[in-house]
Each structure stands twice: as structure tokens, then as C-alpha cells.
Design brief:
222 residues; alpha+beta; SH3 type barrels; Alpha-Beta Plaits; three-stranded antiparallel sheet; 4 helices; 11 strands
């Protein structure tokens, strides 16, 4: 019994000591938005024994201070602003310099995007069907503002590129079709006297090209 009581007191004292250290070191304050060992949310209360965190979906998490003290803590609101980014894919035939200028102008006109540091557009990848640009910009570190501004930036970029006729194509897929009827070539089917397409044991390759404005299909007989 005395051993069990000793272990219980050990945990209690450890939590209290950790609480004192947390209150003095202040890795976070009430109202800060943090990530503690997989739990993400807003600090609601800091007591000597435990720390209370409210997740973004409304759950209340009570974490013993000993665990908080030993955990890796990310304080998302320690700084006033955080950098966000959006990836945009443009057509290979598009003028990259012009696309970057259009994007920068669209992003810089938003009130919630910081002009210092300035937004920037980098060419990040030559993908299968697009040249991928990464748009970087700084916004308020509070989660609601961060997500809202990032969403608005994405929408504004899409609208700006569309207004300037800069294509944002989707992926290109090649499909192998088997047992395609005879005469099924270049998207046309030749019917027999009964109005049915004649059978064929061959195959065809279908290549589809998707874009923001149109889709094209091509069938070639093997």
C-alpha cells in the first residue's frame, strides 16, 4: 500500500513541478494555438497539474503537465504571421514570366496578404502535363485567418489566370481498351445492317486530355 501511495505521490509531484516550470518558462500562453504530441488546438487553461487544450473541432483535451513538459511543442501563434503556399499548374505552352506576373498582381491586391515579406512565385516542378508554380505569401498566424486567406488566394489566382487565358490543364490519362468493335476508330463506330457494331477481338488505346475549359478524346485502333 505504501509503495502504491508513493508512486501516486510521485506522479502528482512530477505534474506540479512540471506545471511550475511551464508557467515560468512560458512556451505558450492562454489563447495560443499549439500542437502538443498530436493534439492541435487553442490553450484554454494552464494549471499546476494539467494543461487544457480545445481542439478545432470542439473537443477538450486535458494533458498532464509532466507529458506537456516532455513533449515536442509547436506554437503556431508565437509569431504574428506564418507563410502559406499554393501550388498552381499551368500549360507547357504558357508564358511562365507572364503567368508569374499575373499571379503576383492578384495575390498582392488582397488586404490580408502581407506585403513584407513580399509574395513570391517559384517554378517548382516540370510535371507530366503542367509546369507547377509555388506561390508563397505571409498571412495572419491565427488558424481561421490563415485558412481563410489561403482559400481566398487560391480562388483569386484561378480567376486571374482564367481572365488572362492562361490554361491550367488537368492530368492526361492513357487507357487501354480491349475487345473494341471493328470500325471503332477516331471516335466513330460503323454499324452493320442490324444497327449494331460488329464484334472485334482487338483493342484500342484511348488518350484523354483534360483542361479547365474542354476535354478531348481520341481512339486509335490497335
Amino acid at each position: 500500500t505504501s509503495v502504491a501511495i508513493g508512486f501516486s505521490l510521485k506522479d502528482v509531484l512530477s505534474n506540479y513541478i512540471s506545471g511550475v516550470i511551464l508557467l515560468s518558462a512560458r512556451p505558450f500562453r492562454i489563447g495560443d494555438q499549439v500542437v502538443i504530441e498530436g493534439y492541435e488546438g487553442t490553450i484554454i487553461q494552464i494549471q499546476l497539474r494539467s494543461t487544457t487544450l480545445k481542439t478545432y473541432d470542439g473537443r477538450m483535451i486535458y494533458i498532464p503537465n509532466q507529458e506537456v513538459f516532455q513533449a515536442n511543442i509547436t506554437n503556431n501563434t508565437a509569431a504574428s504571421y506564418l507563410r502559406s503556399s499554393v501550388t498552381v499548374g499551368i500549360d507547357y505552352d504558357a508564358d511562365i514570366l507572364r503567368a508569374r506576373q499575373v499571379i503576383l498582381k492578384a495575390v498582392s491586391t488582397l488586404n490580408d496578404v502581407q506585403l513584407e515579406p513580399m509574395p513570391e512565385v517559384l517554378v517548382r516542378e516540370l510535371a507530366a502535363s503542367t509546369v507547377n508554380l509555388e506561390v508563397r505569401f505571409w498571412v495572419d498566424s491565427r488558424r481561421a485567418n490563415f485558412l481563410g486567406t489561403t482559400s481566398m488566394v487560391t480562388q483569386r489566382i484561378k480567376e486571374a489566370l482564367k481572365s488572362e487565358d492562361i490554361e491550367m490543364p488537368t492530368e492526361i490519362y492513357t487507357l487501354l481498351l480491349k475487345d473494341v468493335p471493328d470500325g471503332f476508330k477516331q471516335g466513330n463506330v460503323q454499324e452493320n445492317d442490324q444497327g449494331n457494331a460488329p464484334p472485334n477481338n482487338g483493342g484500342a488505346i484511348a488518350t484523354t486530355h483534360g483542361s479547365t475549359s474542354s476535354q478531348e478524346g481520341t481512339l486509335k485502333e490497335l
